[in-house]
Amino acid sequence: MRKVLLGVMAASAALWIGNVQADAELAKSSGCLNCHNVDTKLVGPALKDVAAKYAGQADAADYLAGKIKNGSNGVWGTIPMPPNANVSDENAKKLAEFILTLK
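and the corresponding C-alpha cells:
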C-alpha cells in the first residue's frame, strides 16, 4: 500500500510540475515576461508580488484574467499595463491561475 501511495504522490508531483512549466511557457509566449519578472519588479510588478496581493481572494483569478485581457492603470503605479487582446479568455484565466500559485 505504501508503494502505491508513493507512486501516486510522485505522479501527482510530476503532473503539477508539468503544468507549472507549461503555464510559465504560456506567460513567456503571451508577452507577460516582457514587462514582468517572477521575482523582481521590471516595468510591472513581480508576479510573486501580484500573487501575494491577491492571495486568499475568492475572485482573484477572474479579476486578474480581466486585467490581463483589458489592461490596467494605477493599481501598481503610474505606468499602465496595456490590454492583451491577443490572449484568449481561456489563456488569460490560465495565466491568472498560474500567477496566483507563485510564492
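(Above: one complete record from the training split.) Residues 19-101 form a domain with the Cytochrome Bc1 Complex; Chain D, domain 2 fold (CATH 1.10.760.10).
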